[in-house]
Amino acid sequence: MREKRLVTFRMAPKKSKRQISEREATMADGWKKSKLSEAAVSSLVSRHLLQSKTLIQWQSAESHGRPFEKTSEIVLFKAFVERGLAIPACNFLRGLLFFWGVQLHHLSPDSILHVAIFVQLCETFLGIHPHFDLLGSRFSLNLYPNLRNIAGVGGVDLQFHPDIAKKYILYSLRRQIGDWKAEWFYIDNHAPTLPERTPGPPKHRHEWCVPAGNADQVRELLKRIAKLRRGG
């Protein structure tokens, strides 16, 4: 006769409430585990897109599921650096963030590119400080993907007003950015500081819909932009 043996089944360990809540919070906030290694961040320094670690105190967040809640640090995406975001951030970008009531990680990579090109246009080709009303006449801030389901990361997108792109300088946006939300790292929030990082998606504000002012100045600047376009 065969010997009877007691068969036991080992149950998988239960996840703690803390583990479950952290996972749910991460998914709800829209964060992805960072896959950006220290070597990958260092490559931005080698390409002269980012200052050295000793100068601006950046550190890798590789394998971090979500950012540590340290308000003395900000989260920076590789895609932002590659699209012209410099540290410390320019006063114009800081002013936009505070006026719009959003944080840096709320923006999309294309939004960073639009602002970087706009600042360069104003300072280098128009010979003026970045003009808030000129920006407002060309662009609008929109929630992504929609008002009912706002992404916690990349939830606001700066976009051209309809039919406006033809009346602005010409440049193209990359259709595919890749998994940019999984490529982030930490950096000290250098003075002048950016808005502190707080949980939750961006919220629509009345200021986003305020029509651009200084119409006479905007018209004159648009004439100068048109002249630049005709000149190649």
What does this structure look like?
- This protein is α+β, with helices and mostly antiparallel strands.
- Helices cover 35% and strands 10% of the residues.
- The strands form two sheets. The chain has a three-stranded antiparallel sheet. It has a two-stranded antiparallel sheet with strand order 3-4.
- It is globular.
- The model is unreliable at 4-12 and 17-28 (pLDDT under 50).
The pLDDT mean sits at 86
Q: Categorize the overall geometry.
A: globular
Kindly state the percentage of residues in helix.
25-40%
Instruction: Please state the structural category.
Output: alpha+beta
> Quick one: biggest sheet?
3 strands, antiparallel
The gyration radius over C-alpha positions equals 22 Å
Neighbour order of strands in the largest sheet: 1-5-2
Overall domain count: 1
Tally of contiguous helical segments: 8
Ranges where pLDDT stays below 50 over 5 or more residues in a row are 4-12, 17-28
Overall number of strands = 5
Task: Note the quaternary state here.
Answer: single chain
Describe this structure in a few short sentences.
The chain is of the alpha+beta class and 232 residues long. The protein has eight helices and five strands. It has helices at 17-29, 38-46, 53-56, 78-82, 91-100, 109-126, 132-138, 215-230, and strands spanning 58-60, 73-77, 139-143, 156-160, 184-188.
Index terms:
alpha+beta; three-stranded antiparallel sheet; 35% helix; single chain; 232 residues; 10% strand; globular; two-stranded antiparallel ribbon
